[in-house]
């Protein structure tokens, strides 16, 4: 399997795509063709555990990797999850299910990929003959940063530096990163929002001058964001696994379609569902759920992507994004894989802040995706009402997806009773004050008091990794301007 850039030109192996992270022309790597998973292969996957299913799906794309090595890496990665099943599917009622992706080391869906990425990157470097030290740069809106730090801490031959918007993550997310252990890690708060933070990091990746200077120091760059296909690929697996769990529990028959509702910011998670569909998974509609930063809702409804709007800080901070990087990969498919069209649109977005797609592309988009957004009041109301009815607590991001799913199911869009799987992306305990306020009306300022009271109110088990945070020493407190990031990177590289 070869990979090509969304902006044309480059054609590389899977190992190269993962080691490099981003194409030299600034585009994102996509598979040259989509591998297929037949119904017979899915039947065979029914008896597999999650790690085996993940390895099977991954090897479809990464056939230059040894399958046994992939399987072993998956087993090791997912043994760190606390439920015995890395991605359990919970039945809410006859047509509604919750795909819980928060049982990993950092209590967010990013763990499904970032516990595995260290192996994929290390093996990718070995296959490509890369002997230099790898420096991973990560821009995070909250969850990716901690999951990447935890995945790569003390990894041999790797350093990792995470950048987050100084006032754009929750208190628990900030504390998770600030207390990170490991001799090869660094964390830096950046003045500005996530989009500004992400753009500053991308500039380093696409600067030949920066890359040459780092190379002279024996360092090569890579990414743990979902712009790296190695971050995206493991996410495809849990859509297959959720579907197979529905079949094995006799909720559906093999071949029947299922809808998925996904809280969406940078578009990686929902893109993984789309990729699963391209491989043959019977996916009906993909419900793209946004918060008050509803740029994706507007885009899917109108075909116009316009970032010239107010940026809102919300109680679902991991979705506080106006530039959804992975949308470029979807645009590539909608355009009939026209790299020049993609390049033109990305340049227009950078220079003018807006672009529009053609009518036939919009028609294809709307046949696949349905979009809605959830305001702050609706988020609180959804958490409260769902807990009242089902005694099931959900975090603020999942609430956005549940709200959108509810609106979709209540409309005229579907009347065939297809199951709806809502993707639950984070533990409620990562946002304890907001969830506690939604469920009880109590406004608790201290995160750890909120965790305690939320546990009493819901009887939901508190993840050990979060309850232990209170006693961990804070290691990282630095804050930087966006134009100083590369200087901070050099300081970290030179630090012994």
TrEMBL record:
ATP-binding as a keyword? no
The record's EC number reads 4.2.3.1
Residue ranges constituting the Tryptophan synthase beta chain-like PALP domain according to the UniProt record: 98-425
Domain Threonine synthase N-terminal: where? 2-78
The chemistry this enzyme catalyses reads: O-phospho-L-homoserine + H2O = L-threonine + phosphate
Q: Name one GO cellular component term.
A: cytoplasm
Coiled-coil features, chain-numbered ranges: none
Show the PROSITE patterns listed in the entry. DEHYDRATASE_SER_THR
Pathway listed: Amino-acid biosynthesis; L-threonine biosynthesis; L-threonine from L-aspartate: step 5/5
Classification via Gene3D superfamilies: 3.40.50.1100, Threonine synthase, N-terminal domain
Residues carrying N6-(pyridoxal phosphate)lysine: 110
Pfam family for this entry, one:
Thr_synth_N
**What cofactor does this chain's UniProt record say it requires?**
pyridoxal 5'-phosphate
- GO biological processes: threonine biosynthetic process
UniProt entry keywords in alphabetical sequence? Amino-acid biosynthesis, Lyase, Pyridoxal phosphate, Threonine biosynthesis
Which CDD domains does the record match to this protein? Thr-synth_2
The terms under GO molecular function for this entry are: pyridoxal phosphate binding; threonine synthase activity
Q: Which InterPro entries match?
A: Ser/Thr_deHydtase_PyrdxlP-BS (IPR000634), Thr_synth_N (IPR029144), Thr_synth_N_sf (IPR037158), Thr_synthase-like (IPR004450), TrpB-like_PALP (IPR001926), TrpB-like_PALP_sf (IPR036052)
Protein family per UniProt: Belongs to the threonine synthase family.
The family database entries (NCBIfam families) matched by this protein are listed as: thrC
This chain's function reads:
Catalyzes the gamma-elimination of phosphate from L-phosphohomoserine and the beta-addition of water to produce L-threonine.
Q: What is this protein called?
A: Threonine synthase
């Amino acid at each position: 399997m070869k990979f090509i850039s969304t902006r044309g030109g480059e054609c590389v192996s899977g190992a190269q795509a993962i080691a490099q992270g981003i194409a030299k022309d600034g585009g994102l790597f996509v598979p040259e063709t989509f591998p297929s998973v037949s119904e017979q292969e899915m039947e065979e996957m029914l008896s597999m555990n999650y790690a085996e299913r993940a390895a099977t799906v991954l090897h479809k794309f990464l056939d230059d990797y040894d399958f046994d090595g992939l399987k072993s890496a998956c087993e090791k990665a997912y043994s760190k999850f606390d439920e015995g099943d890395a991605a359990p599917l919970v039945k809410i009622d006859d047509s509604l299910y919750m795909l819980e992706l928060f049982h990993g080391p950092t209590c967010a869906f990013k763990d499904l990929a970032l516990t595995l990425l260290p192996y994929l990157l290390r093996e990718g470097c070995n296959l490509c003959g890369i002997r230099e030290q790898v420096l991973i740069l990560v821009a995070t809106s909250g969850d990716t940063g901690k999951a990447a730090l935890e995945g790569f801490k003390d990894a041999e031959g790797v350093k990792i530096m995470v950048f987050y918007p100084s006032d754009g993550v929750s208190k628990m997310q900030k504390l998770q990163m600030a207390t990170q252990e490991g001799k090869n890690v660094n964390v830096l708060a950046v003045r500005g929002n996530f989009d500004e933070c992400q753009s500053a990091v991308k500039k380093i990746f696409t600067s030949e001058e920066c890359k040459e200077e780092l190379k002279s120091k024996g360092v090569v760059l890579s990414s743990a964001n979902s712009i790296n296909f190695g971050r995206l690929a493991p996410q495809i697996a849990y859509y297959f696994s959720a579907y197979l769990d529905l079949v094995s529990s006799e909720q559906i028959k093999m071949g029947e379609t299922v809808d998925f509702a996904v809280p969406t910011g940078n578009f990686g998670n929902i893109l993984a569902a789309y990729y699963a569909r391209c491989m043959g998974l019977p996916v009906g509609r993909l419900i793209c759920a946004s918060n008050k930063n509803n740029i994706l809702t507007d885009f899917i409804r109108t075909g116009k992507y316009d970032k010239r709007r107010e940026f809102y800080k919300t109680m679902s901070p991991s979705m506080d994004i106006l530039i959804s990087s992975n949308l470029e990969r979807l645009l590539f498919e909608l355009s009939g894989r026209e790299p020049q069209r993609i390049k033109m649109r990305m340049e227009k977005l950078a220079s003018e802040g807006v672009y529009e797609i053609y009518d036939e592309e919009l028609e294809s988009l709307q046949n696949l995706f349905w979009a809605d957004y959830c305001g702050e009041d609706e988020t609180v109301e959804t958490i409260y009402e769902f807990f009242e009815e089902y005694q099931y607590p959900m975090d603020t991001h999942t609430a956005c997806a549940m709200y959108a799913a509810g609106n979709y199911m209540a409309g005229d869009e579907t009347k065939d009773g297809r199951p709806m799987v809502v993707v639950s992306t984070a533990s409620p305990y990562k946002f304890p004050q907001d969830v506690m306020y939604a469920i009880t009306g109590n406004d608790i300022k201290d995160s750890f008091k909120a965790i305690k009271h939320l546990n009493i109110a819901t009887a939901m088990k508190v993840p050990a990794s979060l309850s232990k945070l209170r006693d961990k020493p804070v290691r990282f407190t630095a804050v930087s301007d966006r134009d100083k990031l590369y200087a901070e990177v050099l300081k970290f590289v030179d630090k012994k």
